[in-house]
Amino acid sequence: MTVFPSATGGEPALFGREGELISVRISIEPRLLEDLLEALASLHFPVNPQLYHKLAQVTVEFPAYSERIDEVRGILLQHGFDTKSLELSRGLAAIAGI
Predict the structure, then answer these.
(1) Mean model confidence pLDDT for the chain
(2) What is the pLDDT of residues 20-68, one digit of tens each?
(3) What pLDDT was estimated at residue 92?
(4) Neighbour-count burial of 92, counting CB atoms closer than 10 A to its CB (0-12 exposed, 13-18 middle, 19+ buried)
(5) In CATH, what number is assigned to the domain containing residue 28?
(6) Structural domain count, the chain
(7) Which residues constitute the domain of residue 46?
(8) What is the pairing mode between strands 50-54 and 19-28?
(9) Which residues pair with 51 in a beta bridge?
(10) What is d(CA 2, CA 17) in angstroms, rounded to the nearest whole number?
(11) What is the rounded CA–CA span in Å between residue 24 and residue 41?
């Protein structure tokens, strides 16, 4: 794993064999949380999500390498989720919550 300044804004970035480590954020209605977590469990890499609850929305956030994002999109589609709910953030600040 290597740390380089990111091309976007000069923030540090982590790079590994599967690309840049980025933060993945998916926002859904609370009633869909269990279904989303089951869908994420079927990914071919481990996901340790952080959950953020608001009144009418739950946000699920986890790190993933950039080469895995198409797999995340595919799993969302396969399980009936809208890929518009998927947000990606680059840089260590987004992952560390800084």
Answers:
(1) 85
(2) 999 999 999 999 999 999 999 999 999 999 999 998 999 999 999 999 9
(3) 56
(4) middle
(5) 3.30.70.2750
(6) 1
(7) 2-96
(8) unpaired
(9) 60
(10) 10
(11) 15
